[in-house]
Design a protein that fits this description.
13 strands; 15 helices; alpha/beta; globular; disordered N terminus; 6-stranded parallel sheet; about 400 residues; single chain
Length: about 400
């Protein structure tokens, strides 16, 4: 990992694709890039990265053979730098590394890179991985990119309706390594530690702890569920926001979970970040993901790859994942705890339905959301921009 701006040796006539990201943590967008990166490298593309140094994302990129330059949107006191300062630093890095192309891995980095790409005459592709309201100025910045990639048709539609360049915005669904989510035949050790018996129902939620994920609705629904077997609700993930309302939100969730867990047949467990998510999915009964908005939930693709039935909300890009008639019944309205509880009960009460959903979900991922399909589409974008 480089702390300076040294360019380093490169093959004659070839430069890197420079990945730009403001995040050092590894969440959906970072995992999506890491998943497709080996396939793109196999296709002959060379990558370097400008990301926060000594971060989890930086180390993962380095492990994949990507040279990393320390680059952060934050100063040494963890205060966000001005856009002008961030762009000035990026211009200097581009002048030193002379990349063929910029890959802006998120909406925020896409906004930073738009004007910089124009200033340095560097082709650039930017990712839209969020559905949220943008200022007119932000849209103008992103529209300066040579290519904009949305992770779902819903994400594209949202931004195009608000001024994003429709002619320059395409959809590339994220890809997933299906085999990585086959899971282990043995039950996770965590189940024994939590006192989960082989016949108990295990409901799983994976993701950041925040209001957008709808965990408050999830706990309301759990309270309404009535089954003949004990139920364990596992909540995997952490809260990243330090805002007061986010802290209070998590505290309220934990207090509610403690009250629910006093019931003899119900237990809610906050299990933090986990490295064994594929195994947890492989041995759980059902994934619950009652998000209030979801551009294209990577956890949903992972659950499908694991052959796990899902109950999630009919928002954003989720209907694009559960698009076949055989998957009907896994989508519910957002914010409706009684409907969510009723759907969960009906699936828990029917092993046949769970089995069918699991098979269909895995087939959908195998046919429509593979890493190779995503890599090929992105390689075509890279090739087009580099040839220009």
């Amino acid at each position: 990992m480089d702390s300076g701006l040294g360019g380093g040796p490169k093959l004659p006539g070839r430069g890197p694709i420079l990945i730009v990201s403001e995040y050092g943590t590894i969440n959906g967008g970072e995992n999506s890039l890491l998943a497709v990166l080996p396939s793109l490298i196999e296709k002959g593309f060379v990558f370097e990265a400008a990301v926060p140094g000594h971060s989890a994302f930086a180390h993962a990129l380095s492990a994949a053979g990507v040279r990393v330059y320390e680059f952060s949107f934050m100063d040494c006191e963890a205060v966000r730098k001005s856009q002008a300062d961030i762009r000035a630093e990026l211009v200097e890095l581009i002048r030193c590394t002379r990349p063929l192309l910029l890959h802006c891995n998120s909406l925020a980095s896409s906004r930073i890179c738009g004007p910089v790409a124009k200033q340095t005459s560097t082709p650039a592709v930017g990712y839209l991985r969020d559905i949220l309201n943008l200022s007119r100025r932000a849209i103008e910045d992103i529209n300066q990119l040579d290519q904009i990639v949305a992770v779902s048709a819903a994400t594209r539609q949202w931004h195009v309706e608000r001024g994003m360049d429709a002619s320059n915005t395409i959809v590339i669904h994220n890809g997933i390594d299906v085999q990585a989510f086959a899971g282990s035949p043995s039950r996770p050790e965590l189940f024994n530690a939590l006192g989960i018996e082989p016949d108990d129902h295990v409901l799983l939620s994976v993701g950041q702890i925040g209001m957008r994920k709808g965990l408050d609705v999830l706990l309301e629904a759990i309270e309404l569920i009535s089954t003949t077997k004990p139920v364990h609700m596992l909540i995997a993930g952490e809260r990243y926001s330090t805002k007061a309302e986010a802290v209070e939100y998590e505290q309220n969730l934990r207090e509610k979970a403690a009250i629910l867990s006093r019931a003899s047949d119900l237990a809610v467990h906050f299990i933090g970040l986990r490295s064994d998510v594929p195994d947890l999915m492989h041995h759980s009964t059902l994934l619950l993901h009652p998000a209030r908005q979801e551009p294209l939930g990577r956890v949903l693709l992972e659950a499908c790859a694991a052959g796990l039935p899902v109950v999630t909300t009919d928002v954003g890009g989720s209907p694009e994942i559960f698009a076949s008639a055989d998957q009907a019944g896994q989508l519910v309205p957002a914010g409706d705890a009684p409907v969510l509880a009723g759907r969960v009960e009906s699936i828990l009460d029917s092993p046949e339905i769970r089995h069918q959903f699991g098979i269909t979900n895995r087939r959908q991922v195998e046919s429509r959301f593979t890493i190779e399909r995503c890599a090929q589409a992105l390689a075509e974008v890279y090739g087009k921009l580099i040839r220009r």
